[in-house]
Amino acid sequence: MTHALPFFPPDLFDDDRAVLLEAVQRIATATEQKFILGERTAALERALRAETGAADVIACGSGTTALTLVLRAMDIGPGDEVVVPAFGCAPLASSVVSVGATPVFADVHPWTMVVEPYEVESAVTGRTAAIMPAHMFSVMADMPTLRELAEHHGVRLVEDSAVAQGGVLDGVPAGRWGEAGVYSFVQVKTFGTIGEGGAVVTDDEELAHRVRLLRNHGQDGRTRFLHHVVGYNSRFDEVMADFQLHRLPGLAGRLRRRAEIADYYTARFAPLVDYGVQAPPAGRNGRCFYVYSLLVDHRDALRHHLADRGVGSHVYYPSPLPAQPAFARFARPGQFWPHAELACARTLALPCYPHLTDAEVEHIADAVCDFSGGPR
Ligand SMILES: *Cc1c(COP(=O)(O)O)cnc(C)c1O
């Protein structure tokens, strides 16, 4: 059925359609005919540097290649292990595999669904080159502990902050906790756009230089057809850069609205915990409301109940990474990820996009509260 309130709204960019069409027209008809890695990409990188305070931001083709570029720039490859969460999206494991290294899966916290530092620590071996935690849904990973752990074990710290752009933990923006962080600009992310894109964020200028080489076939941007290293095609689009420069000033307001919606949901759902519906933790520190995800005992029943009331919902992710056919061969025999399994069986994400009206948010909360039989 079609939902009156779909989980993925079809009108995310409606307000900016005229701006987008104008940018396409302007860039398409400009005399320089520069469509990738031009002055608009450079301006977006400068704007994101200013926004994050990072020494460098490098725009690239996607969040996934941002991870790959960082791992390659760190010289992580065959024989190396990278500890990643057992619950999360495929690029966490595939980026590691794509550089020839081995992903090692660590279980997550049963409530927040971010990786458990002690599980990460117990997965570290003599071959561990890096740990790569990811922020999940609305909760940033425990970066202070993970940073200490990386320092203590002498391994690199890559922060998959693809979903958390705009989040701040203890005063430090998401993306700046790791030696390098990444952002994704795919449609549904907090700074999503009308196509593919991503960025690497880092204070390490040598690493930034290597990422810049790697994103454009090993070329340095000065001498064409001089390939310093074997690189990738992970360049950034000028129309997208122009559009994102236009969208950037509104990001903080959109994030505030998401947080407001989440606060309302969490307050409404607090009593439901006794009825098998658990909201994420309350609060704003270390949070970024990319996705508002509940933990529900009778998840599929709630999903149907909401659909009957015109409310779309979504399941991220139905299966732990080490249970995926693509990654099963990296699962260590005899190892289990019970919290990841539970999360897969119980998570249900509700709409929380910024242009939901108060009445719509209330309708969604009412629909959830009806289901549980709990108080309204
Ligand atoms: C979306 C996402 C990515 C990948 O970003 P793309 O731009 O889609 O390639 C990586 N990690 C996490 C945690 C993500 O949610």
From TrEMBL:
<dbReference type="GO" id="GO:0000271">
    <property type="term" value="P:polysaccharide biosynthetic process"/>
</dbReference>
<dbReference type="InterPro" id="IPR015421">
    <property type="entry name" value="PyrdxlP-dep_Trfase_major"/>
</dbReference>
<dbReference type="Pfam" id="PF01041">
    <property type="entry name" value="DegT_DnrJ_EryC1"/>
</dbReference>
<feature type="modified residue" description="N6-(pyridoxal phosphate)lysine">
    <location>
        <position position="189"/>
    </location>
</feature>
<dbReference type="GO" id="GO:0030170">
    <property type="term" value="F:pyridoxal phosphate binding"/>
</dbReference>
<dbReference type="GO" id="GO:0008483">
    <property type="term" value="F:transaminase activity"/>
</dbReference>
<comment type="similarity">
    <text>Belongs to the DegT/DnrJ/EryC1 family.</text>
</comment>
<keyword id="KW-0663">Pyridoxal phosphate</keyword>
<protein>
    <submittedName>
        <fullName>dTDP-4-amino-4,6-dideoxygalactose transaminase</fullName>
    </submittedName>
</protein>
<dbReference type="InterPro" id="IPR015424">
    <property type="entry name" value="PyrdxlP-dep_Trfase"/>
</dbReference>
<dbReference type="InterPro" id="IPR000653">
    <property type="entry name" value="DegT/StrS_aminotransferase"/>
</dbReference>
<dbReference type="InterPro" id="IPR015422">
    <property type="entry name" value="PyrdxlP-dep_Trfase_small"/>
</dbReference>
<feature type="active site" description="Proton acceptor">
    <location>
        <position position="189"/>
    </location>
</feature>
